[in-house]
Amino acid sequence: MAIMNVTRNVKNQFSDDKNLAMRINFYKKYTTNKYNFADWLFDKYDFKENMKILELGCGNGSHWDDKIETLPNGCSLVLSDFSEGMLDLVRKKFSTSENVSIKKIDIQEIPFENETFDVVIANHMLFHVPDLNKALLEVKRVLKGNGIFYSATDGNGGIFKMIKLTTKEYKELVEGAVKFEPTSTAFTEQLPFNLQNGSEILSKYFKNVQRFDYENILAITNTQDLIEWLKSTKSISGYSDESLLNLYNYFEDIRVKDGAINIPRETGVFISVK
User: Fold this and answer.
1) Residue 182: pLDDT over 80
2) What is the DSSP string of 52-76?
3) Which of the 8 DSSP states describes residue 31?
4) DSSP 3-state assignment of 210?
């Protein structure tokens, strides 16, 4: 039942690209690292001629907008997601690209033969997967020998650390403030797959795992933008209007005091070899 609930929540969150597009625009607006994350990530990819590449959880495919034509000669790319809403957007963008195919795929049941792909990509999606063991076994199965698996994810620091701080110490930090005590644990639970535990998890399936961190700080000057971003990333159905107002006030106090809400964006990528 728990796995079914997780799957339903993820499908609802990513039924279209509204939430994803909002997050991408939020990062673009407030990032202080001018080396775009997508460019940084693609510079980590080691694509060679005639490679077969599979991306799982491609979302709206926006990170490929100016990258398809840069693929080496003979490469074929499968862009996949388990949201039809996302795939409709991907089809509109890339249906005329001869080296791109688009397919609905659940990472827990990848519909390809053993050792089909030279590269598999699963960025910022493994922490959504109900059965991570099953998913990683499937990734390993469809990878060729010495194939490469790229998996970007977030850490448990940054904004998540700040939210935990509000739940524990807000009253002590801000004199006379109402303590922020959400009834949901959505913001305080650790991501199941994160920068801190990713190496340990992946090492059970792959022989060589490397972690690369993308250094960035978000300098947020509009507190409501931050609240809307939080709403797009986690379920906050258990939060009362009063709790959300207290959360807003907490961050607004920081913005007024410092001129901006400076939050480290703790993210990076694991590169694993089969």
Assistant:
1) no
2) EEEESS-TT-GGGTTTGGGSPTT-E
3) B
4) strand
Helices 158-173 and 241-258 pack at an angle, to 10 degrees, of 90
H helices within 97-151, ranges in order? 132-142
CATH classification of the domain holding 79? 3.40.50.150
Q: Which of 88-97, 104-113, 172-181, 221-230 has the highest mean pLDDT?
A: 104-113
Q: What is the pTM of this model?
A: 0.83
CA distance 142 to 136: 10
Domain hosting residue 176, numbered range = 157-189+222-258
Tell me how far CA of residue 44 lies from CA of 59, 148, 212, 213, in angstroms: 20, 11, 9, 11
How many structural domains comprise the chain?
Answer: 2
How far CA 90 is from CA of 87, 94, 143, in Å, comes to 5, 6, 24
List CB contacts of 48: < 8 A, sequence separation 6 or more: 72, 118
| C-alpha to C-alpha distance for 134 and 57, rounded to whole angstroms | 16
Rounded (5°) CA angle 77-209-142: 40
The span from the CA of 196 to the CA of 213, in Å, is 11
**Residue 176 in tokens:** 């006379």
Q: What are phi and psi of 186, to 5 degrees?
A: -55, -35
Helix, strand, or coil (residue 106):
strand
Number of residues written out for the chain: 274
